[in-house]
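Usage example:
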Amino acid sequence: MTPERWKQVNDLFHAALDRPAPERRVFLQQAAGQDLELLREVDTLLAAHGSSDSFLEIPAWGVAPELMFDRQETTLAGRTIGSYRVLDEIGRGGMGIVYAAEDTRLGRQVALKALPPNYLSEQAGRERLRREARAAASLTHPGIATVYALEDIEGELYITSELVRGQTLRDELANGPLPPDRLLATLLDIADALAAAHAQGIVHRDLKPENIMRAANGHVKILDFGLARSIEPGERSTMTQLTKAGTAVGTPGYMAPEQLSGGPVDARSDVFAFGVLAAELATGEHPFGPDSAAMLRRMTQLMEGKALSTAGAWSAPHLEHVARRCMRAEPAERYPSGMELLAALRDAPGVVTPIQPASPQAALWWWQFHQGAIALALAAMPATAWAIRPMIGAPAGSRIFFVALVLATISITARMNLIFTSRVHPASLGHQRSLVFPWVAWADAALAVTMIVAALALNDRDAAAGLLITLSTVILASIILIEPATTRAAGIDSANRGPLESRRPG
Amino acid sequence: MTDDRQSLDSLLPLVYQELRRLAASYLRREKPGQTLQPTALVNEAYLRLLKDRPDRWQNRAHFCAIAAHSMRQILIERARARGAQKRGGARARVTLDEALVAGGDRSIDLVALDEALERLAKLDPDQARLVELRFFGGLTVEETADTMDISPATVKRHWTIARAWLARELEGLAPQ
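Running the assembly step on the lines above writes:
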């Protein structure tokens, strides 16, 4: 058939289709006349049209989804690879399948990442994997899943890392935005981890809710530092080559404009992704919009260097301004790295974070000093009660003295015990304090009230009454205001943690 | 053209990765949910394509065409490889997920479709391109109209007859 003939077929086909079905046959016969071949051509096309209802209406990848996958993505679960016993599959990503496995040499469970075979056949892929493992293994931080080893087993490469079981932030987002306190704690955890990585010159490059997991202790860990690359200046050229070789890195929607446009990527690109993540966790929606059209529009704005207006309502409005600065199109306008981001988060109004003292030891010294000073004030109470006993009169004066003596002894003994614990076994100080503190608080309060009553009973002895009221006020103020402040500054909390172990915020 | 080609090569893996995710959700018979739609992928890819060429902002049509063509090449290469793997080199007939298509016990031989598209291109290159954009590029009628700079009505007319012709070719019912 020639193109001209095809045009003829087209015209007749559409002319026939424009008519009601019963009339088509007659119309065709009249229009085609002697040209039986034309008649047959259009006739069979109309028949095919009638029976081709959904033909080609679903895009190719929907019709043949299995073609989108690599051929040998069979699961390794149940098999033994080298010294690893593979337990079960825990996730699939663009870079491979992740399994939970048992390292039989060390008897510990690990996450085992296997890469698709076709990926590994490329030398660039292997080289990149080695480099990513090397960079990632140098990172140890409670907020980052630690990389253990790069294993070459029978020609296949695997990365083993700390096994984190739990929910990803993507899973949590299914229940809507995070409540404000949880949001803040989560963002501080992530920023703290990013700050540690950035301090070592390592960027993540693919920060997103799928890559962050909440562990059993409630804190989050960033997974898959597999895409992190060392940002030493000398590595730039190799990096660019690898990128050009077709190993695109990142996830649309979380990539900074410079990342989208293939420019140099640094810590500020992570800061951008953090902003998107923060907005998503705060509002429950992706800040670029709910659908792909809105997302495209925002990304276009970004590429053009325009400011973003984020969607959704913030459950924690004070964080919005931090997130907005993270999502600036121009890298120089964002926080330079995780360190500055972390500082900004801590400075946001309404943020209650542990006060960071100059040094933990100094804070602990002040706490000990406070305990000692209060113990002295407490000791002054029964002494004063003894001195004023004659002024009040025999039975009442003696009773006040004995009550003051008992209460002061309880409180002083407890405080001495805490000071002793802080010097000898600081790790259990938090626990010990949570046991003892209620006794101390009640004893102090009762003592202060007793002494105020005694002071009121001293009718015309203003000097002694003033001293008693002053001491009582100091003790009350201490128990209500000063004690909580020094304790918090020293980082003592009730979760079995001593001052030095609880340096992490959140 | 050469420049675009190179840029596209570097971003195709990204597009491809997203498409894989999408395909995975088809496989699990779930709604794509949070996953980006294919159109968005092409658009995202387009953004990347423009990385070094802000002067080419308007040339979306060109990009969509290249992206759709690349998807076609990737899928057909894979379909051929699968066919070659099977005993006797018989072609893999890809079963269309019945859950996706009402009343459909249908399968499409992608390799045969590709060959038929080549024949269609000789009759009417625009129609072949249109099928490529819609079937391999995942564009809607309106997007295809934008890309080809023709009216949606014209897209529908071309689409109707091209589909009928291809369906007939694949059924082996062509006259002659």
